[in-house]
Design goal:
The protein has one helix and 18 strands. The chain is mostly beta strands. The strands form four sheets. Strands 4, 6, 8, 12, 13, 14, 15 and 17 form an eight-stranded antiparallel sheet that branches. Strands 1-3-7-5 form a four-stranded antiparallel sheet, with no helix packed on it. A four-stranded antiparallel sheet has the order 9-10-11-16, with no helix packed on it. The longest helix is centred in the N-terminal third of the chain and has 21 residues.
Length: about 300
């Protein structure tokens, strides 16, 4: 009887330890400089095609960042060719499927494919011996960056040195955030009752950033006139918080829709936080939320020959 009770106890203990071992541990997932990644599926399209054959192209789309892709206006386009030779390709693009990004318990974002189908017209009738277009695939999508840094708030930096300080205001590095737009650093400057932040933002993804909002997505299409000077190289600062308190209204330079312009892929944001001077220095999280449209492209050259 005692052996049976002991055996049952050991089995329960083993099950408990097994469940505990299987409990996932959250990871620091906000790393990396990529959002959506495009890849032509091998041999779609092939490097050599003959006229009067179907034209097929397929792209693998992978979300390597931390934000969701695949909203109603997120689209993938195929261009770079004469549409009287390769016909039937949708100039309105194809919907990017919804792709979840990485998370605290998910080490990899979603992957899917997008297909394009058309027809190659006769080259002989056009007196063309060879046609070698560069097929350009362009993704236009909205994305989000969430950056967090531990900052030191010292409401009374000129107090006697005898006061104990758990931290000293300094520059906080933020690394990358699993998105093509990154908050690269946060400089902290303290004065009596007020802390000033210099937030540096960089385009690290290699693509083009443009204003956030559905009205700008159509301009991203290669079949439209294109993004205007007042649309490209802008991103929206959705919020800046310190200790869960929004300080976005103190930030500059922002326009009336909270957009800031990047110059040579860089922007600098200045914000302020007011704290009671009676408080001693303390560490607290500063969060920056950025929203933007993003455009990136890849290409593949093909050779089209007449059948005879």
């Amino acid at each position: 009887m005692k052996k049976s009770v002991l055996l049952i106890f050991l089995v329960i203990l083993l099950i408990g330890c097994t469940r505990k071992a299987q409990t996932p541990i959250p990871t620091d997932f906000r790393t990396g400089t990529q959002g959506l990644v495009l890849t032509f599926v091998p041999n779609l399209p092939p490097s050599r095609i003959f006229d009067r054959e179907p034209f097929q192209a397929m792209l693998q789309v992978e979300n390597k960042g931390t934000s969701v892709v695949g909203g109603p206006m997120d689209r993938l386009y195929l261009s770079g060719f004469d549409n009287t030779i390769i016909t039937g390709i949708n100039t309105y693009g194809e919907q990017i499927p919804q792709l979840e990004g990485r998370g605290p318990f998910v080490s990899q974002g979603d992957i899917d494919t997008v297909a394009f189908r058309g027809t190659i017209q006769s080259l002989t009738g056009k007196r063309i011996d060879k046609y070698t277009p560069t097929i350009l695939a362009t993704a236009c999508y909205n994305y989000e960056t969430i950056a967090s840094a531990q900052v030191c708030i010292d409401p009374n930096p000129y107090a006697p040195t005898s006061i104990q300080r758990v931290c000293i205001p300094t520059t906080a590095g933020t690394g990358s955030q699993g998105a093509p737009i990154a908050v690269s650093s946060v400089q902290v400057d303290a004065s009596p009752g007020k802390t000033r932040f210099t937030i540096r933002i960089s385009n690290v993804g290699g693509g083009d950033v443009f204003r956030f909002g559905p009205q700008y997505m159509d301009s991203c299409s290669p079949y439209n006139p294109g993004l205007g000077f007042d649309e490209v190289d802008f991103l929206q600062v959705a919020d800046v918080t310190v200790s869960d308190l929004s300080i976005i209204e103190t930030c500059r330079p922002l326009d009336d829709t909270h957009h800031i312009r990047l110059t040579s892929g860089q922007a600098t944001l200045f914000c302020e936080f007011t704290a009671m001077r009676e408080q001693s220095p303390y560490l607290t999280p500063l969060n920056v939320i950025l929203r933007y449209g993003y455009r990136q492209s890849i290409s593949r050259m093909v050779e089209i020959r007449p059948v005879s």
